[in-house]
């Protein structure tokens, strides 16, 4: 084996510049950001954009009951609300709720059907009143409640469930949904030939029954897993989805994967900006359709996460890398003019942002993906000025960047930079970094650089992750635990700023 000295000579490296551990460098990246918002900046971002969804079979675990509210969850949710200055919006539904039945005389929250497995999606739950009490536990949350629709002939029970939900939701109802992922009904709980016109007709039958019982409500409809015509948003609206002008949003769902992904594919599947761009390009069509034909109805991604296959794969879906994926997904959704993203939560699913209760031998915990919520909430902020976002279009798989404009006309105020190169701290080696040379074209003098960081992308212990130096834990009841500051300050001269971001790290640059 040649000596290190010989190697250096052979590769022509200069001895004087070598540090004992050679840090891998990456080509410098450059971007120019106009000082005022360009024409292709996003629409104004709703402060409620970073939203949540609870699967029906986990809802009561996240909220707790009237007798025992889950204050851990309450603090984690309030952390987001405090940063955006908006209510957190939570959608409660999914397949388990669609196939559930309200049991008025049942005094426990949930009775699972026989054969239900931990981490699975039960079909045939019975929900008692204690389940519905959870809606009253987070009084500052705005709720979207899904009425069950899978069993078409169970309409009176579905209406009774709405009544029970409204009792606890009170004025905090944002919308009702009728059914979940209706595009997947044909050949499952509806005949093979079930079509969009039949769906719209049955939807109106349910909506009529709800209106007769409780008066006019606002709806989120349709609720589709995918946007594949004939079960697509355009066709459903053309068939009369909004004929009564009571639809306030339309919903699609998205998961990056629907099957096992090995750890060796974390870089290519999740820490990959191009893959997010590819997978979400299909949303441009429904966003454009609604804008042109129903400009008051936004498209929401009302159930989103990394992988529907999410049992016992915390090493793939429950890591710091997963938080970085979620930040990039949420940021890119803003660029696409998605009105809101509800990040799906389900107890025992590896992608969850937190485990609200002890489950299957695992203690309650903040989980790594949680950190994406306060990060994105801080990007939006709680100011009064209108916020718009641009994609820096770096055309890189492993690096993404966004400009944040505030006010009208929008002024460049913040920049998000994500270094998505996977760094695994357990395999050792120096951590690579990438430097971004920014031309800001603005009069900014100072840059504050705040970090979302951890020892490596593989980290599963959320107390080792920090955002601006803060960490969140179950031991702190979901309140921020301040740690050593990771914030840097730099001066901007002549509109030029260079920012170095380590592999597997995100930063928020705030200009002043
Ligand atoms: C949210 O802000 C309020 C008002 O400043 C504060 O009392 C509360 O503790 C904050 N909540 C959390 C979870 O930090
Ligand atoms: C559907 O609902 C009807 C009416 O409540 C009930 O009789 C029937 O058993 C339900 N079907 C299933 C599969 O649960
Ligand atoms: C990122 O994903 C795209 C597919 O969307 C793929 O072509 C590319 O190879 C991936 N990049 C990496 C670094 O794995
Ligand atoms: C990190 O490396 C360890 C040790 O080789 C391995 O067990 C783990 O799966 C890796 N994680 C990721 C996300 O690469």
Automatic annotation (TrEMBL):
Q: Where is the signal peptide?
A: 1-18
Instruction: Please state every residue range assigned to the domain named Beta-glucuronidase C-terminal.
Output: 401-508
Question: Gene3D superfamilies recorded for this chain?
Answer: Glycosidases, Golgi alpha-mannosidase II
**Which UniProt keywords are listed?**
Signal
According to the lineage, what is the superkingdom? Answer: Eukaryota
The protein's matches in SUPFAM superfamilies, at most eight in alphabetical order, are given as: (Trans)glycosidases
Q: Which InterPro entries match?
A: GH, GH79_Enzymes, GlcAase_C, Glyco_hydro_b
Q: Cross-referenced PANTHER family, in alphabetical order?
A: BETA-GLUCURONIDASE, BETA-GLUCURONIDASE C-TERMINAL DOMAIN-CONTAINING PROTEIN
Protein name according to UniProt: Beta-glucuronidase C-terminal domain-containing protein
Q: What is the lineage of its organism?
A: Eukaryota, Fungi, Dikarya, Ascomycota, Pezizomycotina
